[in-house]
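It is time I had a proper look at our fold encoding. Can you supply me with one protein entry, sequence and fold together? It will help me judge whether the discrete encoding reads sensibly. Leave the record below and I will have a look:
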Amino acid sequence: MMTYIELEKLFEKDFAAAGIETPQVDAARLVADITGASTLEMFLHPDREVPREQEELLRKLALRRCRREPLQYLTGKAWFRELELEVSPAVLIPRPETELLVDFLLENAFPGARVLDLGTGSGAIALSCAFERPDLAVTAADISSEALETARKNARRCGAEVRFVQSDLFSALEGEVFDLIGANLPYVTDEEYETLSPEVRDHEPRLALTAPEEGLALIFKTAEALDTHLVSGGKAAFELSPFQAPRLKDLLEKSGYNTRIACDLTGRDRFVFAEKK
């Protein structure tokens, strides 16, 4: 049997050889998540051996990681803001930049505000809003029944109150209005899709990534229906690609909305925020 540190170093070497960008981080997280041992425990007890069954499982998972399966799918969990979420190949892995979309929603949410998360996936946006602000009335919609099942599991996991609706954008929400709408919809073009990392291209659900019409089909369809589902003075937040942001801003402004573009953590135009007059 090998020690925790020995396994971590072995996996780090294998991950680096496989072209993984963060081999040390991934190796440490894999060992910690599967064994439950903290970095401090490994440091304090460097000679402690990993139980044989866990070592066998870790070696199998490490091999899959070398084949570029996302670490979050291997461990079955991902962190988003304050929440540890269950993830699977049925949903996208939540990205750190999307936390800024949640910031916008929470900063603009008055007590009891009605919030809609379109394309909820794992439930990251909706559950964060409901968890951090239990006073909000949060609805989460997605076209995928598998994604909604994952989101429901995550709601039970974190104890957040959210209403889940299977809906193709607003199709199942006829007659409903909201004070805030967040939309992290598919926006990757077919051309961009071919350039994505193996982790994303080969393992994450394409349905949740790509959209026709230069990636803007679903975003434009949502923007064009905002008037019907957003109250006067209500606000919406869209996550999209930098080159798409000016086009969406222009569309919304022509529809009478006050808009602004905001950057992600790397300084790229990533969000369009809109307010209905």
